[in-house]
Amino acid sequence: MPSKEKFLFFHAIRPGTASPGNAEGTNRVIAISVADYFDMDAVIRILRAHGFLIDPDETGFEPDQVIHTRGVNNGDIFVFPSGSLVAWSLPEDVVRDLATKTLLPAAVDPHVGAVELEDLECEEDPSRDSSSLKGDIIVLGMKDSHGNSDTKSSRVDTTLAKIAFSSGLARSTKLAVLETMLSKYFESTKAIPTLLSRGSRLPFNRQFMLQKTGELLDLRARLNHYSELTDSLPDLFWDSRHELGLEAYYDQVGRALDVGVRIKTLNQKMDYAQEIATILRETMSEKHSIHLEWIIIVLIAVEVGFELRREWKERKERLERKEI
Question: Quick one: 123 and 179 in the same domain?
Answer without folding.
Answer: no
